[in-house]
Amino acid sequence: MMHIGSLVAGPRGTIADVAGVTVGHCTLAQGAVQTGVTVIRPHDGDVYRDKVPAAACVINGFGKSVGLVQIDELGVIETPIALTNTFGVGTLANAQIRAAIAANPRIGREDPSVNPLVFECNDGYLNDMQALAIHEAHYTSALEACSVEFERGAVGAGRGMSCFELKGGMGSASRVVHIGGDAYTTGALVLANFGKLQQLIVEGEALGRKLQSSIDEKPEQGSIIMLIATDAPLDARQLRRLAMRAAAGLARTGSVFGHGSGDISLAFTTAYTVPHDADFIAMPPLINDARLDPLFQAAADATEQAILDALYSAETVAGRNGHRRISLKDALRTRP
């Protein structure tokens, strides 16, 4: 797969190039059930005790996520991030709450409640969402599987997802920039489930038009969740600006953020944490806003690369009612 942009990638070329970040999957793939769970840990500690600065940007709000209101208000996340299908959101929120209470029995009593954080895309074309196949144990399995080495494509939450009417799913990428003599890594992880084939652009080439001979007038229906991690010292306001730049990478692939699309990005930094019990927060010197452009480019390039990674990593999958999504690699092999 081609390399997007002029910035270099980290050694793994994934979001795990940001120190401390790990990803785990639990995949359900049997007949009409083609779905799963993906969990992202920003560090290996208790995120409730050591919260992570974060901010979200809703590009188009056709989505059913949990936890965004408190992130907007307080600028931190306090659980691992969970991804799944639309009907699995409530189940995973319960799983996150149970896990947080098990580690912190004072939650909801002497201590404040916990803010679960779950994002979703609708995988109903391939997956029978009415089966409600996602259980709390699947969250636990994905959490326990978190590692710096993880699969991409039709795995975890990405198992049943479609992208540009091809097989979509999980994708990841990273970029390294230098600001003031220091190197910073920015990584992207996407759950890609959006777009019409005729819109697909790969490195500036209108590839979708070459793969589809006729024009389809049906509206685009789908979503994408874009997670941006960085080790650059930023505050929540700056992280929201970073999260917004994921939309630039999304647009380059051909997305128009359609009416029925839930396009949401979230950015977090591992440069410092916010201790739950502290009276004051020890923060490193923050990067001046006027020096953020390299990070903005890194977020856009890594997001575009991650979407292409999801397409190139996915395999062809058949699911509910005989529905089938062909992988981009298979589509290119059969191209006239």
TrEMBL record:
Classification via InterPro entries: ArgJ-like_dom_sf, Peptidase_S58_DmpA
Superkingdom assignment: Bacteria
GO molecular function: aminopeptidase activity
Keyword Protease: yes
SUPFAM superfamilies: DmpA/ArgJ-like (SSF56266)
A Pfam family it matches: Peptidase_S58
CDD domains: DmpA
The entry's keywords: Aminopeptidase, Hydrolase, Protease
Signal peptide region: none
UniProt KW Aminoacyl-tRNA synthetase keyword: no
PANTHER family: BLR5678 PROTEIN, D-AMINOPEPTIDASE
Family: Belongs to the peptidase S58 family.
Name of this chain's protein: D-aminopeptidase
Organism: Caballeronia zhejiangensis
Lineage, uppermost ranks: Bacteria, Pseudomonadati, Pseudomonadota, Betaproteobacteria, Burkholderiales
